[in-house]
């Protein structure tokens, strides 16, 4: 299929209250700061909003609707004019599926343990013949699984590489890329909307398809510079980047509105894909919260990193640097992460004798991030400048630290550094290395931390979602006005 196959069907829309928008994201939407703020902005502007995403959110449900695969029936809410149909029928199971499932269960480690207990009890032939035969079958199954997985990966890899020559292959791969994509699509098909808003490249082909099948127009909001998101990963550049670029190139040009989190990404998208109109910049600013200034204690200065706890965020170098921080400083790392990675960080902290100075804290709900951060003094982020994607980074945490009234200590990256200097919010360091980080932290004392904190509280009145969302709503209302004029 080509982009022309996904051209939106004609429709008549009226801007203003009553316009219907479906926001789709490959995330738990109630916990996704940017997606949740988008939906709330449209809801507060009088739009009928439904969002479709993944289950498992920790934050409280919003007033507008969120549909996931766990939704058993169409919810209703005042003011939401949704035409929800029945869920698509589940595919017929394969006749061999029960047999395969039975063999898999029978040859599982748990079944083998149960078999050992039973054959030991019965003894004789059961122990001497049956148990070795079943264990041999288990080993054969494990051995044969390796070449099957290898062949599968080779096939997928070859097809991904083929996207450089034949971009249409990317679409075929996309629909088998993740089971979650199919589930979101099946759920979104229950919705009638005039605007389909795709969050990130993972939802862009899906939104285009929904616009073609259901009517309406689709728009694209990118949280990252997708073409370089993992640019420092050689494997990703070789295998995944061709698919990401092929999908963006195929569908971004027909998106009615394209928005990005920073001016650098917006500008780069226009050059990379020769977009017919400039992308708009909608930054990741939080809702305004009135936070009271609290002076920094000279005896204890609290440094906070909050966000996803994952490799590639300079956390290892940050932990190593704490030993060189002045004794007044301590560090809290807070956020969700893979348990194995969290365990590795805890081990690193323990090995360096820093358990009394570094805390790994559990995540808090998205709606409580700013309030919980306000108890700290310095907001910290050691993002490596190892890719063009990171150069353009302007993440949620940057603005959440500002809203919480914290001084900032960040890597010297263009987008963040520009705003940090404009509003006089803190200090930067040029490399994610022990000495550079420790030097920046140790340059801060209670007096200049307090000055930066007061500047942050003043900047928060400008760098807030109430101001940022005005551009978002104006762009979409202008879009519907133009569409209504064309339909007339």
What are the SSEs and their pairings?
Blueprint: E1 20-24, H1 33-44, E2 48-52, E3 65-67, H2 97-106, H3 109-122, H4 124-162, H5 168-174, H6 179-188, E4 195-199, H7 204-214, E5 217-222, H8 234-239, H9 241-251, E6 258-260, H10 263-273, E7 280-281, E8 301-306, H11 315-322, E9 329-334, H12 339-351, E10 358-361, H13 369-373, E11 378-381, H14 388-391, H15 396-403, E12 407-411, H16 414-422, E13 426-429, H17 434-442, H18 446-459, H19 465-487
Parallel strand pairs: 1-2, 1-4, 2-3, 4-5, 5-6, 6-7, 8-9, 8-11, 9-10, 11-12, 12-13
Helix pairs in contact: 1-19, 3-4, 5-9, 11-17
Class derived from helix and strand content: alpha/beta
First and last CA, distance: 30 Å
> How is the main sheet built?
7 strands, parallel
Number of domains: 2
Helix content: 40-55%
Number of helices: 19
Mean pLDDT: 83
According to CATH, the homologous superfamily of the largest domain is Glycogen Phosphorylase B
Give the neighbour order of strands across the main sheet. Answer: 3-2-1-4-5-6-7
Low-confidence stretches: 1-16, 73-93
Relative strand content:
5-15%
Q: At the first level of CATH, what is the class of the largest domain? A: Alpha Beta
CATH architecture field of the largest domain: 3-Layer(aba) Sandwich
Structure summary, number of beta strands: 13
Radius of gyration: 26 Å
CATH fold descriptor of the largest domain: Rossmann fold
Taken from the alpha-carbon principal axes, the silhouette is: globular
